[in-house]
């Protein structure tokens, strides 16, 4: 990466630790009008990533006035979960911070050069992620997909319990437990092996 506009083409991803929480970050190209085909691909990838990101850190150059490209980016971010960041606080301020905050919410003022504002940015990220008071040892669900997987697993376990106490066969309860296990593995991104399933269901007379 360089400080020259238009040189970021691919999305660069990495994980960072924020307190006890690991976050996956993706550094994308900025928006700007260009006739460069390869650069346009990078911009399009960034626009697509905006649609899937859970939190967007939108960085603006505080040492210059907002460009048309900056304003286009602001329009794309409407309705998203965003932390606007005004960088280069070590230089004379020229960006319209009031306009940015009116469009995207409270901005964090930083200087990547001096490190100023780093603590404020960390706190803002924790608040937006809902982890400012999180006990990392307690475990949590990071997104809607994980929540739905957990709810599916819970519903399947409830059905298994009701089946056993309702006079139905262990086969029926076992199928529901298998469904619950599948949901939990989907939540964690793993795949339940036949060995694991057989070990769990070894206590049941499950017709498989």
UniProtKB/TrEMBL annotation:
Protein name, please? tRNA modification GTPase TrmE
Residue ranges annotated for the MnmE helical domain, each copy included: 53-205
The Gene Ontology biological process terms listed for this entry are:
tRNA methylation; tRNA wobble uridine modification
* CDD domains listed in its UniProt record: trmE
Q: Which InterPro entries match?
A: G_TrmE, MnmE_dom2, MnmE_helical, P-loop_NTPase
Q: Lineage, please?
A: unclassified sequences, metagenomes, organismal metagenomes
The Swiss-Prot or TrEMBL record annotates one GO molecular function as:
GTP binding
Q: Source species, please?
A: human gut metagenome
Q: Which GO terms describe its cellular component?
A: cytosol
An example of a Pfam family matching this protein is: MnmE_helical
